[in-house]
Amino acid sequence: MCQNLILPGCDKMDRIITLMNELSPDAMSALERRYNTLRSLSYIQPAGRRQLAEYTNMTEREARSETEQLKKQGLVQSDSCGMRLTTEGMKVLLELYECISAISNKREMELTLASALNIKDVSIVSGDAEQKNMVFRDMGARAAKCFQKYAPDIASAAVTGHKTVEYMTNSRFISGRHSELTIYPVRTAQLNSEDDNANNNCARLARKMGANYKLLHLGEGLSINEIEKKYQSAPVMEAVAGAMGADVIISGVNSLNGSPVFNAMSVCARESLLQEDACCELLGNFLKKDGKQINNPPIHSTAVEELGEARIFMLIAGGAGSVDAISALACRLNNMHLITDETTAGALIRSK
């Protein structure tokens, strides 16, 4: 594994933005509005003004004003299908992403939360993931940008099948040619929807980044004996070993109600976990708020300790239901780079 992964900062840009805030706060406000309009349009394009207004909670008049200005700057264009970003518009959006923390004054909050949780790093996006689905897309885009910075210095990465990871792999902010990088799926032998989606996330991320990838195919409706035979086969053993030896592991985490493993259990088993104060599930591991594991990991699953052996564990999680889960994992994984929303970040800071 690579030993020295450092996510570059943008100290000069921080200073420039501080000066801009002091000298011309109106200019900063306009910059944020234009950025938010570009960002939103990139998610729903092609779109009309009414659709953009509804998506961003702007009035139609405000949406018209913002998009007309962006058209004059050559960042947005219109056709019979609606408005969309130009090539230059996407380029500008990508560049703004580089210093979005500074633009939104989130870096101090990020450092405070990283210190409070005693983890490697935190990246915060604006908004409340509980209230607007767009915030999850923002988290995915931010995670994509962070991973792009790690990619040149690593040999391998692994992804789970969580929905938040899917937002990342679907992001427009992933590209490049990383022929030395190999992506692996992280999955259990539970054969649920998240297991299947791990392969999809793996292949999608690798193709966008021009990387190599190995998939973990188990099949459907297998007996325990059939699963055992699969895990003894060379292709499966290679994929599992690759995932466990990855430099970076990218994952989400499930609340109990959102856990396909929990929901597939018997009523008795679910009640037992609730009595033990389980707050979350990750790859079949059920944890309490203090990070203590309640169950033994399912056969052929990945233990939480193994996630801690990666150089970076990127956790993409947000919303009120994820606060206890994030805290629990932070107790176990100080290699964590958390990507979350500002409402969740605030709740985590207050809980400490």
Fold and architecture overview:
By secondary structure, the protein is α/β, with parallel strands linked by helices. It has two domains: 11-98, Winged helix-like DNA-binding domain superfamily/Winged helix DNA-binding domain (Arc Repressor Mutant, subunit A), CATH 1.10.10.10; 106-351, Rossmann fold. The chain has helices at residues 11-23, 25-44, 49-56, 60-72, 87-98, 100-103, 107-117, 133-150, 163-169, 193-209, 224-231, 234-244, 260-263, 267-275, 304-307, 323-332, 342-351, and strands spanning 76-79, 82-85, 121-125, 156-159, 182-185, 212-213, 248-251, 254-255, 280-282, 285-287, 312-316, 336-341. A seven-stranded parallel beta sheet has the order 3-12-11-7-4-5-6. Strand 1 (76-79) and strand 2 form a beta hairpin. It is globular and about 65 Å long.
Keywords:
single chain, 352 residues, alpha/beta, Arc Repressor Mutant, subunit A, Rossmann fold, 2 domains, seven-stranded parallel β-sheet, three-stranded antiparallel β-sheet, 17 helices, globular
SSE arrangement:
Elements: H1 11-23, H2 25-44, H3 49-56, H4 60-72, E1 76-79, E2 82-85, H5 87-98, H6 100-103, H7 107-117, E3 121-125, H8 133-150, E4 156-159, H9 163-169, E5 182-185, H10 193-209, E6 212-213, H11 224-231, H12 234-244, E7 248-251, E8 254-255, H13 260-263, H14 267-275, E9 280-282, E10 285-287, H15 304-307, E11 312-316, H16 323-332, E12 336-341, H17 342-351
Parallel strand pairs: 3-12, 4-5, 4-7, 5-6, 7-11, 11-12
Antiparallel strand pairs: 1-2, 8-9, 9-10
Helix pairs in contact: 1-2, 2-4, 2-5, 3-4, 7-17, 8-9, 9-10, 16-17
